């Protein structure tokens, strides 16, 4: 199998889907309830997955490849920012952690969407809680690594598929 643009984007799509499936397994099998920042990080993975899939189906020439790469990097870099914010909240001293706010479902019902985004990005006490680690790193660290790897994959895909 050759490493053409379509194949590279399908690999990116499958990677995002596997990351989202692992998040759902953690939520439903291991009963780790996601905080609002976790949900937003999932949305960034969903956006990247959608862009990878559309890019694979479309399989554009040079200019289109650059556009898809830019869009995907925008989604993934927003995920990097969310993961960094989450890591920062988890490393705050206990007395500096913001108080827990209402759930995301409630906020979406009651508040305007822009207020929901502002509230979630400020973080809450539940976002500062470390409920699971692997090799000493919490879930936001692992999502950060995944975002960085996918950013590198986007750039690699653009470089390798020059036509």
UniProtKB/TrEMBL annotation:
<keyword id="KW-0812">Transmembrane</keyword>
<feature type="topological domain" description="Cytoplasmic">
    <location>
        <begin position="161"/>
        <end position="163"/>
    </location>
</feature>
<comment type="similarity">
    <text>Belongs to the DsbB family.</text>
</comment>
<keyword id="KW-0143">Chaperone</keyword>
<keyword id="KW-1003">Cell membrane</keyword>
<dbReference type="InterPro" id="IPR023380">
    <property type="entry name" value="DsbB-like_sf"/>
</dbReference>
<comment type="function">
    <text>Required for disulfide bond formation in some periplasmic proteins. Acts by oxidizing the DsbA protein.</text>
</comment>
<feature type="transmembrane region" description="Helical">
    <location>
        <begin position="69"/>
        <end position="88"/>
    </location>
</feature>
<feature type="transmembrane region" description="Helical">
    <location>
        <begin position="139"/>
        <end position="158"/>
    </location>
</feature>
<dbReference type="GO" id="GO:0015035">
    <property type="term" value="F:protein-disulfide reductase activity"/>
</dbReference>
<keyword id="KW-0249">Electron transport</keyword>
<feature type="disulfide bond" description="Redox-active">
    <location>
        <begin position="35"/>
        <end position="38"/>
    </location>
</feature>
<keyword id="KW-0813">Transport</keyword>
<keyword id="KW-0472">Membrane</keyword>
<keyword id="KW-1133">Transmembrane helix</keyword>
<feature type="topological domain" description="Periplasmic">
    <location>
        <begin position="26"/>
        <end position="43"/>
    </location>
</feature>
<dbReference type="GO" id="GO:0005886">
    <property type="term" value="C:plasma membrane"/>
</dbReference>
<feature type="topological domain" description="Cytoplasmic">
    <location>
        <begin position="1"/>
        <end position="8"/>
    </location>
</feature>
<dbReference type="InterPro" id="IPR050183">
    <property type="entry name" value="DsbB"/>
</dbReference>
<dbReference type="GO" id="GO:0009055">
    <property type="term" value="F:electron transfer activity"/>
</dbReference>
<feature type="topological domain" description="Cytoplasmic">
    <location>
        <begin position="61"/>
        <end position="66"/>
    </location>
</feature>
<feature type="transmembrane region" description="Helical">
    <location>
        <begin position="39"/>
        <end position="57"/>
    </location>
</feature>
<keyword id="KW-0560">Oxidoreductase</keyword>
<keyword id="KW-0997">Cell inner membrane</keyword>
<feature type="transmembrane region" description="Helical">
    <location>
        <begin position="7"/>
        <end position="27"/>
    </location>
</feature>
<dbReference type="GO" id="GO:0006457">
    <property type="term" value="P:protein folding"/>
</dbReference>
<protein>
    <recommendedName>
        <fullName>Disulfide bond formation protein B</fullName>
    </recommendedName>
</protein>
<keyword id="KW-1015">Disulfide bond</keyword>
<dbReference type="InterPro" id="IPR003752">
    <property type="entry name" value="DiS_bond_form_DsbB/BdbC"/>
</dbReference>
<dbReference type="Pfam" id="PF02600">
    <property type="entry name" value="DsbB"/>
</dbReference>
<dbReference type="InterPro" id="IPR022920">
    <property type="entry name" value="Disulphide_bond_form_DsbB"/>
</dbReference>
<keyword id="KW-0676">Redox-active center</keyword>
